Amino acid sequence: MCIISLVNPPAMRIQVQALSSRVSTEAIVIAYFVKANLEKHSLWRTLRASERVLIQRLVRTKDFSGKTGEAKIVYRTGGGKVVLLGLGEEKKWNQRSLVLAARQAMVVAKAEKVTSVGLALESFMLPGMSIDRVAQALAENAVMAVYDFPNYKKEKIPVKLKSASFFVNASEFAAAQRGVSAGVIIGEQVNLARDLGNIPGGEMTPTMLAQKAVEVGKQTGVKVQVMGHDALKKLGAGAILGVAHGSSEEPKFIIMEYRGASASEKPYVFVGKGVTFDSGGLNLKPGVHMNDMHLDMLGGAAVIAALGAIAKLKLKVNVVGLVPSVENMPGSAGYRPGDLLKGLSGKTIEVLDTDAEGRVILSDALTYAERYKPKLVVDVATLTGACMVALGLKTAGLFTPEKELQIKLTEVGERSGDYVWPLPLWEEHEADIKGTFGDVQNVGRKGRYGDAINGAAFLWQFAKKYPWAHLDVAGPMKTVEGQFLAKGASGVAVRFLVELVR
Ligand code: BES
Ligand code: MN
Ligand code: ZN
Predict the structure, then answer these.
(1) Contact 247, 278 (CB under 8 A)
(2) 45 is catalytic
(3) Residue of 292, 325, 355, 359 with the most ligand 1 atoms within 8 Å of its CB, for mutation
(4) pLDDT tens digits, residue range 213-226?
(5) Cβ(416)–Cβ(495) below 8 Å
(6) Is the pTM here over 0.85, yes or no?
(7) 477 CA closest ligand 1 atom index
(8) What are the residues whose beta carbons fall under 8 Å from the beta carbon of 364, sequence distance 6 or more?
(9) Residues with Cβ within 6 A of ligand 1?
(10) DSSP label of 486
């Protein structure tokens, strides 16, 4: 087995250029609303007369009409290409369409094997969205769109696309530059989380995940502390240790601390599930259900990457990241159904299914969070298949007992591009996870019904001392067709966590 030492290098450089400067990128994107006036496009004047005639004709004959997702390549007379990109109807243009269009522009340019691509920021503007936010969204999604994970292929096809230029009016230059800088940082950190996820379970062990967190710390100045088996034993983290028992891989508890504000300011605490491989344990997962389970640490990866982004953005907040990391394996040493684990909280956990391991390890981390007297705790976890059934593959489940927080976080999801949607968490749900022989049990008393809620209700028992929300990101942990992103880990929740504290 080969250990890859470094994650992928930064995908692409993005520069902001004044519209008055010469447009010399190999491809230019003419982003176009249905029935828009081509002559008003900021890049129109950069085209040669013969090219304009050709493009006008394509529009006249309806070979290109500007529908959402439509893309046509026009070869330029002196070399290079024009990408005609359909943005749909202008009145339907919104932030979601902006995300997809930005990615599609890059995916098309990448497929065309050009080395550089230029676009006019103006053609992506949205009423009510500032220049820097549009620039950020474009940059963030461009960086996400060119990402690939070729590390394990013998034949690596190098990505030719190395740079993008965003053309702006001179007066918008500073704002656009600000947005691009932030967008590139966030996009790259999303890609870091994707890398951590895509590395197979045989290599991405708790030890390696902790090592990656330490690397992020070295790059950014975030303080990173890693507890191993002995330290966890001394701490009394019996829940983490219980789940880890069946694996030869040592469990790690990763603690990251970023100080961007005065010490008196209460921190946000982000908690991420870091199960580097989830076999189900003795309640072994059947058949194909085990296939994606190297991605079961994506909540943890999101927390690690988000702390990196927040530090690079120098945000004036205090943030703590907590990632309990284990491998969930069966074997003679593995924890058993019926076992009663006593964790940090002192409550006993009745294990009735070793495959409901995420909530068990998170219980120790949520209890540990108390010592920071947090302003808010958000945990991110690929927690339940039931949440995927409920909300599908594009939306994370949001659980919190506090209504106002629910509304606020739904909006954070919308703004960030990591879409979340509320599911209920009420007092009457707490009865469903009451233990028979222990204080709480790790599966619902009524079987599989409402499993996502059962998981949230379980976590809630350990999160009573501060404002708290839980994101179940099992659904959107992988990219899906139509998102214009490479197959594999999505890097879900990095953008959400960064947007939350901004
Ligand atoms: N990691 C899984 C959840 C999961 C499943 C994430 C599929 C992504 C794709 C989690 O540890 C798990 O196994 N949950 C169980 C809980 C059940 C035993 C109560 C599940 O959802 O089946
Ligand atoms: Mn499981
Ligand atoms: Zn799991």
Answers:
(1) no
(2) no
(3) 355
(4) 999 999 999 999 99
(5) yes
(6) yes
(7) 8
(8) 237, 238, 239, 240, 253, 324, 343, 344, 345
(9) 278, 292, 296, 353, 355-358, 382-386, 443, 451, 474, 477
(10) -
